[in-house]
Amino acid sequence: MGKFQVNLIIEIMGRPPEHVKEALRNLSTRIGSEKGVKIKSQEIHDPIQVEEGKDLYTAFIELSLEIESLSTFTAIIFTYMPSNIELVSPEKIELSNVELNELGNAITQRLHHYDAVTKQILTEKDILLKRLYEFAPHLFKKQEQGKQSQQQVKISKKSNKKSTNKKAKKRK
Known about the structure:
Blueprint: E1 4-14, H1 17-32, E2 37-44, E3 48-49, E4 57-67, H2 70-80, E5 84-89, H3 97-135, H4 141-171
Antiparallel strand pairs: 1-4, 1-5, 2-4, 3-4
Helix pairs in contact: 2-3
């Protein structure tokens, strides 16, 4: 299979604006140093302030790349997570079963990694909430009261449905 001509857009957010622009320059350098990747052109756009963010800025870089292989293309996508990907050429791609297996395994591996990270974060969140409850239970009282009132609303809705159903049965 020949080389891939790819256009990517990668966006980042942060502060101050100088750091955002510098981060994009560093990102471009990292991508260009990847084995099997050649930067054909790049354009770094100036940071603009996010409307609802406190002193947050967003900027993006447009990159035109020449990539040696499908596995390198996949690695670039997973590593740098671009906002937009345009495969310019080749127009048609023919894959062997080995190449498709590699692609499928790369995707599956990444999904398993995300799943493990998500589960770990949720477990840590639960542990932190339990510890926080031990040291500051007063922070949870309003939340518990809110849950109780929600449960009461659900119970009253259920009892209304039951009484409505009983009335409907009596009419028949």
